[in-house]
Amino acid sequence: MKGISRRALTRLASALALLTYAGGALADPAQHDVLILVYHRFAASVTDSTTVRTDTFRSQLRFFEDNGYRVVPLSDVIAWHAGRQDNLPPRALVLSVDDGHRSVYEVLWPMLKGRSVPVTLFIYPSAISNASYAMTWDQLSALVQSGTFDVESHTEWHPNFKTERARLTPDAYRRFVHDQLRRSRARIEGELHRPVRLLAWPFGIYDTELEAIARDEGYTNGFSLDAKPVTPQSNAMALPRYLMTQHCDMTCLRGMLRNAQAHHD
């Protein structure tokens, strides 16, 4: 994302306050608790609020492997949530990455080679092959062809819908949202030749009007930054995710997993 909104930071702080404690064995999360983690950038050192250090991420991967956590495709969780799939593996997790930063190709992909770890990328096409910080379409195509990565929509250019609603008339605002969602999906499908049905809300901003427009534009699911597990009762157009930053160290991660059942819808 283009920075972290105050709302998202407040949620993260609240989650950290609840989750950061050590000690004790990890309990098995119930089958109706599935955590979706969302990352943004990866680097050897922290360069902004969304960067996770490579050593931190490697430690997280080892922790998942050593403690029986299974990283599953986001599509499996969507099928389970919709009732089309009965079960998920015990201790199921999902990894997602927003924005399309070049570190996904240059840093994350090499770390995942040799591991069976599926990842869903949510990108905004205006940056791809254009912004200096972003990947190119050729790089995204290579990631998709690897079989490890799925690519979905993060709107066309990552607007703040609250800001746009305030500055536009209601009709102009609705046209703007439709355009953002339609253009993003069409561009990704045209470049990567894969269907796009999933949408990550920029800055975690969503409401019933936005959800209705997303459905009109052919999206089946949306994803928020609400810092709680997905349950069968979760809103399909705002499935919650945990924002992962360098501030969430291993103690935070252990607490998050241990306390998943405390954060039901």
From TrEMBL:
Domain of life: Bacteria
InterPro entries the record matches: Glyco_hydro/deAcase_b/a-brl (IPR011330), NODB_dom (IPR002509), Polysacch_Deacetylase (IPR051398)
This enzyme's EC code(s): 3.5.1.-
BP-aspect Gene Ontology terms: carbohydrate metabolic process
GO molecular function: hydrolase activity, acting on carbon-nitrogen (but not peptide) bonds
The keyword Transport belongs to this UniProt entry's keyword annotation: no
Source organism: Pandoraea eparura
Name under which the protein is recorded: Poly-beta-1,6-N-acetyl-D-glucosamine N-deacetylase
EC class (word): hydrolase
Signal peptide per UniProt: 1-27
CDD domains on file: CE4_NodB_like_5s_6s
Domain (NodB homology) ranges: 91-265
Keywords assigned by UniProt, alphabetized: Hydrolase, Signal
